[in-house]
Write a structure and sequence with these properties.
The protein has 265 residues and is an alpha+beta fold. The protein is 27% helix and 34% strand. The chain has one domain: outer membrane lipoprotein receptor (LolB), chain A, CATH 2.50.20. The chain contains seven helices and 13 strands. Strands 1-8-9-10-11-12-2-3-4-5-6-7-13 form a 13-stranded mixed sheet. Strand 9 and strand 10 form a beta hairpin.
Length: 265
């Protein structure tokens, strides 16, 4: 995992987003009062942290994804993920996402587009960058953005908004207790009546009240399994964006159906 001197990034959105989530708990979230109290304690605890390291290993419909990412207020994020046997390195700093994928990652991307793509294959092993800022005069990021799913995580306010939308149909109950990474924790089972694929058990530390682990609970007919662990709270996170990253603006035209030319190295 690459890291050295930090690059500053706005951090105010994290606190604002989590405060919005906290305000929504009492009015929207249904379920066991004891479970709701633990959720409130967890939100309060998360509001105070400066960083977290997230490690996950999840399999869904036969596809395995692993990720190892560190997030820090004022620093951004840095880490890596694997998918279909390939590895992609990720950095986030100053509202810009940096990615570097190997040949297998770009082969999978090409297959998703309908076949092998020489333009994509040529980008393997190179750092690419994409601004996550919404263009002036636009109401949202371009729909052709192939990384739009990551935008929600890059902006904590967007992430909190997505969670708030789900709470009106979500019920939380106390599931069980277990030890997670050496800490005693209580499991909270979240069940969404409109989207069973999002159901999960979140284990919250009994002492610090911080989330420690998420275990997806398979919906009927689903084969989703795995765990997502939250470790190394409040440990320093630093990000050094690569100076030679290729701007992805031209690449986006390929995903949007435009002619697009292969970006210069």
């Amino acid at each position: 995992m690459a890291s050295s001197s930090a690059s500053a990034a706005p951090a105010g959105g994290t606190a604002a987003g989590l405060q919005n989530l906290a305000q929504a708990i009492d009015t929207n979230l249904k379920g066991d009062p004891a479970a709701k109290k633990i959720v409130e304690q967890a939100v309060g605890a998360v509001l105070k942290v400066s960083s977290v390291h997230i490690k996950g290993n999840v399999t869904d419909s036969g596809q395995n994804v692993t990720f190892d990412l560190a997030f820090g207020k004022g620093a951004g994020a840095v880490g890596s993920a694997t998918y279909q046997g390939g590895t992609i390195n990720l950095m986030l700093a100053n509202d810009t996402l940096y990615v570097k994928g190997d040949q297998k990652i770009f082969a999978a991307a090409g297959a998703a587009m309908g076949g092998s793509n020489p333009q994509l294959a040529a980008l393997a092993g190179k750092w690419l960058k994409l601004s996550l800022k919404t263009p002036a005069g636009a109401s949202s990021a371009p729909s052709s953005n192939p990384l739009s799913g990551l935008d929600k995580f890059a902006d904590p306010n967007n992430l909190a908004s997505q969670i708030n939308k789900s709470t009106s149909t979500t019920t939380v109950t106390v599931a069980d207790k277990k030890t997670v990474n050496g800490e005693s924790a209580t499991g909270l089972k979240f069940s969404d009546s409109t989207d069973p694929t999002s159901n999960a058990i979140i284990y919250v530390a009994d002492k610090s009240h911080l989330p420690l682990e998420i275990v997806p609970t398979a919906a009927p007919g689903s084969t989703t399994s795995g765990t997502i662990d939250f470790v190394d709270y409040n440990k320093p996170v630093s990000v050094t964006p690569p100076a030679d990253a290729v701007d992805m603006t031209q690449l986006l035209s390929m995903f949007g159906g435009g002619a697009g030319s292969s970006p210069a190295a």
